[in-house]
Amino acid sequence: MITIKSEREIELMRHAGMLVSKMHQYIKPFIKEGITTKELDKLCEEFILKNDGVPTCKGFEGFPCALCTSVNDVVVHGIPDDTKLKNGDIITIDVVIGYKGYQGDAAWTYAVGEIDQDKQYLMEHTEQSLYEGIKMAIPGNRIGDISAAVQKYAEDHHLGVVRELCGHGIGRDMHEDPEVPNYGIPHTGPLLKPGMVICIEPMITFGHRDVYIEDDEWTVRTLDQSPAAHYEHTVLITEDGYEVLTPRLDEEM
Ligand code: MG
Q1: CA of 240 to the centre of ligand 1 (A)
Q2: What pLDDT does residue 253 have?
Q3: Which of 13, 73, 109, 253 has its CB surrounded by the most CB atoms within 10 Å?
Q4: Cα(60)–Cα(174) distance, rounded to whole angstroms?
Q5: Where are the chain's structural domains?
Q6: Pair 195, 155: CB distance under 8 Å
Q7: pLDDT confidence of 148, banded at 50, 70, 90?
Q8: Is 252 a residue whose pLDDT tops 80?
Q9: Sign for the pseudo-dihedral over CA of 201, 212, 44, 112
Q10: From the CA of 234, how far away is ligand 1's center (Å)?
Q11: How far is the CA of 34 from the centre of ligand 1 (A)?
């Protein structure tokens, strides 16, 4: 069931989304060679708790941490551990924060030190594929318009679109209806209406789009070991367009 949020609910979701934005801004300077993903997780969890948020991912279906930290060929759901980041890595930090029962969700891929041109290209065009999707998130359009826009942009840039995972509605729960795939056909799928809140989140690979899940049952990797990037915003459909509830607070982020 797709829920339409009330003004009060939207206010709480704005607050949750802003906490997500602030956490990303907070952690960015720590993303350097030598730090472990577990240390990043600890810093973020402390930040979330200090700001009256709830680290929603921690304990969700047994996931052990506040963040998903996905390095290089890990697409999503990497579990923070003692691995140290190296110069030239890319890392996606994906977080869901609850505030008074409502959720905000955003993921960003960050460069560790100097990265090669392939990773730079992947990051730049994965982020742009998200914006191409967001542009279509207006009342009267359908989910398929968002999906098709993401897919077209990514594939026009010769990148792989992961199909096994998709975006989602969000509200009281971090995963609500509808599903928001990153591939699809324009003018198909659920109709977008004011008050709907969805997460749009392209997961894009530099090589082939095929992925596999590791034995830990969380970590999703590219089959050909090519790097992957992932950008996500929580987006409210408004009367005349959309509002990003997890805005970037630092344009250079
Ligand atoms: Mg997320």
Answers
A1: 25
A2: 45
A3: 13
A4: 10
A5: 7-244
A6: no
A7: very high
A8: no
A9: negative
A10: 9
A11: 25
Bridging pattern class, strands 197-200 and 176-180: unpaired
Cα–ligand 1 centroid distance for 142 (angstroms): 21
Question: Tell me, what's the pLDDT at 251?
Answer: 64
- Rounded distance from Cα 233 to ligand 1 centre (Å): 8
Residue by residue, DSSP assigns 12-31 as HHHHHHHHHHHHHHHHGGG-
Across the strands, what pairs with 242?
A: 237
214, two tokens: 């590791």
Neighbours of 56 (CB within 10 A): 21
Q: List the Cα angle 73/79/80 in 5-degree steps.
A: 105
Place of tokens 């999503």: 76
Q: What is the DSSP string of 126-156?
A: HHHHHHHHHHT-STT-BHHHHHHHHHHHHHH
Cis geometry, peptide bond prior to residue 181 (ω within 30 degrees of 0)? no
Give the tokens for residue 248: 């970037």
- State the residue for tokens 């607070």: 249
Q: Domain 7-244: give its CATH code.
A: 3.90.230.10
Please, which residues have CB within 8 angstroms of residue 131's CB and are 6 or more apart in sequence?
none
What per-residue confidence (pLDDT) applies to 250?
80
Contact 32, 117 (CB under 8 A): no
Q: What is the pLDDT of residues 124-138, one digit of tens each?
A: 999 999 999 999 999
